[in-house]
Amino acid sequence: MQFWSLTFSSLRFVRFRERWQKPILRRLQPPPPVNDAKSYNVFRLREKAHKLHVRRMQIRENNVQSFEKLCHVRRNLDQAKTILEALIKRREKERCHEE
User: pLDDT by residue (tens digit) across 53-83?
Assistant: First the structure.
């Protein structure tokens, strides 16, 4: 049953595309002209020439300066961790005294 519904819908889709004389794949359709007034055609997504990379790989150098920066970041994270642990202990003591 599923097979027949699938083939029927695909045939219907192909007939629809033939009637409108447009290719099945959207990217094969030529872009609409610039002076076209139909909103559906004008705001249709166009194929981009190339996709921009959102996040590019940064080139890192293994030198003394970058090592010192990493050590500084690690010290800051260790300090934040100790402060957070002390804060958690203080909150737990406050809860125990409240009960």
Answer: 666 666 667 888 888 999 999 999 999 999 9
pTM over 0.90, yes/no: no
Q: What is the DSSP letter of 56?
A: P
Reported as half-sphere exposure (CB side, CA atoms, 13 A), residue 77 has a value of 6
Dihedral, 83, 88, 90, 96 alpha carbons, nearest 10: -170
Specify the residue for token string 């094969």.
Answer: 28
In a domain, 39, yes or no: yes
Residue 60 inside a domain? The answer is: no
Q: Are 17 and 24 in contact (CB under 8 A)?
A: yes
Domain with 8 in it: 2-47+74-98
**Ramachandran sector of residue 21 (left: φ over 0; alpha: ψ -120 to 50; beta: rest):** left
Distance (Å, whole) CA 62 – CA 68: 11
